[in-house]
Design a protein that fits this description.
There is one protein chain. By secondary structure, this protein is of the alpha/beta class. Helices cover about 30% and strands about 35% of the residues. It has one domain: Rossmann fold. The two termini are about 15 Å apart.
Length: about 170
Amino acid sequence: MDLKTYLRDVPDFPKPGILFKDISPLLAEPKAMKHVIERMAQMVFEGQVDRIAAIESRGFLFGAPLAVHLGVGFTPIRKRGKLPWRTNRIEYALEYGTDVLEMHQDGVQAGHRVLLVDDLLATGGTMKAACELVEGVGGKVIGCAFVVEIRALGGRAKLQPRRIHSLVEA
């Protein structure tokens, strides 16, 4: 299945000069979604993952069904102030300023083998912070999985030496 046919380019969103990769057509097609989850499941070996962690909000769309498919737990990683219980947090640099990611303190245990999931890898800053958040509590990041990777933005380099898997290069 050619997943690129299920991506829509939206120029000048969210601001002029940005070419947004819209996954809405993929989400609307059950066969394409099933294909994505099955391909992501193939990225990990049987018994190699204890937990799926995904970054809000579009990462949840793939991370939660992948966790169900693999029969493992799911941990949401969210922006500051969105989780209702005690959290661990990490502040990270953006192009202009900083942001914060949080995860429930019991979301990942020391020794858990964690696959991190998001819809798109661009510059890699948010996923790098998510990896550091998981590793900071003793979790082992076994890889980072993406539906789409924009190689020209260099995000892969920020995530080394972790394993990076993407289904589509844009």
